[in-house]
């Protein structure tokens, strides 16, 4: 087990930092730096912006640490933030490239430092099979390259499988399936690399690759791998390939470049093998004395120099030049040739801040039942069964205990707060800006403080809900983007994939205006109460939306409810429970479905799809939800 990864702060230190202990916060951030640097450095392949993305990650850690409910979850929370910042960087880079598409002459100039795998191969003099693995990573599907970086950290003992799963927003079983598929792709690519490098080579392979431009890609990996698999000559070349797991064994964490570590305050250095942090405190920063607060409001460490928090927040861009070169010279290329796409972002384990004073909350699609104020004391929490599984909550007697008993990993209230509802330990509250009237400075500030994800305009295509035009939503969208949160699209009641439907016109307009939309939010209610038919209808709806917009999906309201002129009609409890079980199983198989939320937590005569009739009494549907993952 690598000591570098396990040098991350313990829960007690995190608690102290969360409660305002400046020295503890300094130690927490400093101890986190090596892992953040490894994730970002590998994902960006030594790009010159590595130091800036590391800084942005640390700034978010400092900003949101007080909102972390479960100190024991700090590591997976940290990994999720780092992955999110990498993806945001990639998205910004792509937008810039698209915006400057006319500057082809500039973008097409080769960057001698851009081929990270090639640089590492040259500088480290890797053995043949490790060199082939490094080259094979260039051929991976983009969505597997991020997984490769995290899996390597798992293999070297820096993070656990559960932490990988939490950072990606997937179940451990789903991660295992994806890792197995990724390893098969690497093995296939290694065979291609070896066959292409063979001398004398296979004449049939030369014929197959005649139109290949020499740039590795998943498409050409599949084409060339098909030949390698069927060719007796090329197939024999791969018979001596060692398992990739053995090639990774014993490799240490990427050490911080000396130039970077010299800018951070002293922490207990890990063993020499890890080489994570080597720091000797500089003298007092000019204009500041130890223990005072420098400009920007971040205290120094009281030990003669600026704290790591000060440096992380206030460090000017470019403070540490040649960071990319330090990365390239220090790490195996297998973990560096990674391209991060915003296609499948992680679901960080954020937790809600302490409940604010109760205020009026917007009504969900079915009016909330009268509520009684529960105890402000957080309830005892059964284990959360899945970070993906959520529920829509409106207040009722025993709501806090029911939420805890549901084993949901997250919840929302159709507002930016959760008045009268205590957030159980390990559970995430996700805020919502429900309608145009909620786009105010106060509500936006609350949304920003609640965490990194933000749900937006609830059923704008319905007169009795947000009731907004597409143009109105687009005009307000920049104010939502200014929160810095990951934004879900407005949640339409129906017609998500319909050409010229409300959502389609919004997404087209958002693209034209350069607006950022990070995931698609959907509602779905089935009118056919036959389980197999309903699940198939839901699956096809989600697939159609994903194929149209190519973004992750949050399904934030779903159940079997038939709406007609006579009002809402519900199936029997057993039918609803059977649908819930089958539907959540199906949702777990769709990699693009990042989160889902059942409608809803309370069960009354009116809300008969609900999960709990009081804090402890689960309905048949509620028991099915507790078992769902």
From TrEMBL:
Domain Asl1-like glycosyl hydrolase catalytic: 403-625
Species of the source: Micromonospora zamorensis
Protein keywords: DNA-binding, Sigma factor, Transcription, Transcription regulation
Bias kind Low complexity: ranges: 285-295, 358-378
Name by which UniProt lists this protein: RNA polymerase sigma factor
Highest taxon of the lineage: Bacteria
Sequence segments annotated as region (Disordered): 274-305, 349-378
Stated family: Belongs to the sigma-70 factor family. ECF subfamily.
Keyword Transcription: yes
RNA polymerase sigma-70 region domain boundaries: 29-92
UniProt cross-references to InterPro entries, sorted A to Z: ASL1, Asl1_glyco_hydro_catalytic, GH, RNA_pol_sigma-70_dom, RNA_pol_sigma70_ECF_CS, RNA_pol_sigma70_r2, RNA_pol_sigma_r2, RNA_pol_sigma_r3/r4-like
């Amino acid at each position: 087990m690598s000591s570098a990864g396990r040098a991350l702060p313990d829960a007690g230190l995190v608690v102290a930092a969360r409660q305002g202990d400046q020295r503890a916060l300094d130690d927490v951030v400093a101890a986190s730096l090596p892992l953040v640097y490894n994730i970002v450095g590998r994902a960006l392949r030594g790009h010159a912006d590595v130091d800036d993305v590391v800084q942005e990650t640390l700034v978010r850690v400092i900003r949101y640490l007080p909102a972390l409910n479960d100190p024991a979850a700090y590591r997976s929370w940290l990994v999720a933030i780092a992955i999110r910042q990498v993806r945001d960087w990639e998205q910004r880079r792509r937008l810039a490239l698209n915006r400057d598409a006319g500057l082809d002459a500039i973008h097409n100039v080769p960057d001698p430092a851009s081929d990270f795998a090639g640089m590492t191969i040259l500088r480290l003099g890797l053995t043949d099979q490790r060199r082939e693995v490094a080259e094979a990573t260039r051929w991976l599907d983009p969505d597997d390259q991020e997984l490769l970086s995290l899996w390597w950290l798992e293999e070297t003992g820096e993070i656990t499988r559960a932490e990988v799963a939490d950072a990606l927003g997937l179940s451990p079983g789903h991660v295992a399936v994806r890792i197995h598929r990724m390893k098969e792709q690497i093995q296939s690519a290694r065979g291609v690399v070896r066959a292409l490098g063979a001398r004398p080579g296979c004449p049939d392979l030369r014929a197959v690759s005649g139109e290949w431009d020499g740039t590795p890609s998943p498409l050409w990996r599949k084409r060339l791998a098909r030949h390698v698999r069927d060719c007796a000559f090329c197939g024999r070349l791969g018979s001596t390939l060692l398992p990739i797991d053995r090639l990774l064994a014993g490799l240490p964490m990427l050490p911080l470049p000396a130039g970077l570590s010299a800018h951070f305050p002293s922490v207990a250095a890990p063993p020499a093998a890890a080489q994570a942090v080597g720091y000797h405190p500089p003298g007092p920063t000019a204009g500041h004395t130890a223990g005072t607060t420098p400009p920007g409001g971040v205290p120094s460490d009281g030990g003669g120099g600026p704290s790591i928090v000060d440096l992380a927040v206030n460090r000017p861009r470019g403070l540490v030049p040649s960071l990319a070169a330090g990365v390239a010279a220090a790490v195996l290329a297998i973990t560096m040739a990674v391209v991060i796409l915003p296609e499948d972002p992680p679901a960080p384990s954020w937790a809600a801040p302490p409940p604010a004073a109760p205020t009026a909350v917007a009504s969900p699609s079915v009016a909330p039942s009268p509520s009684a104020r529960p105890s402000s004391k957080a309830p005892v929490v059964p284990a959360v069964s899945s970070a993906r599984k959520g529920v829509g909550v409106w207040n009722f007697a025993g709501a806090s205990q029911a939420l805890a008993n549901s084993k949901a990993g997250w919840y929302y209230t159709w507002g930016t707060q959760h008045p009268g509802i205590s957030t159980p330990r390990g559970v995430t509250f996700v805020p919502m800006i429900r309608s145009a009237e909620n786009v105010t400075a106060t509500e936006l500030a609350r949304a920003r403080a609640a965490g990194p994800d933000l749900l937006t305009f609830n059923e704008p295509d319905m007169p009795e809900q947000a009731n907004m035009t597409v143009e109105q939503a687009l005009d307000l969208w920049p104010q939502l983007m200014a929160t810095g949160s990951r934004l879900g699209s407005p949640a339409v009641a129906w017609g998500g994939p319909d050409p010229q439907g409300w959502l389609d016109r919004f997404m087209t307009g958002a693209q034209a205006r350069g607006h950022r939309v990070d995931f698609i939010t959907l509602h779905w209610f089935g009118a056919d109460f036959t389980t197999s038919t309903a699940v198939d209808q839901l699956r096809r709806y989600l697939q159609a939306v994903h194929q149209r917009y190519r973004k992750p999906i949050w399904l934030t309201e779903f159940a079997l409810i038939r709406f007609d002129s006579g009002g809402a009609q519900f199936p029997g409890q057993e039918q609803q429970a059977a649908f819930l079980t089958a539907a959540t199983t199906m949702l777990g198989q769709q990699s693009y479905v990042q989160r889902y939320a059942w409608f809803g937590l309370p069960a009354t005569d009116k809300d008969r799809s609900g999960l709990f009739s009081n804090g402890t009494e689960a309905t048949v549907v509620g028991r099915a939800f507790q078992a769902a993952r």
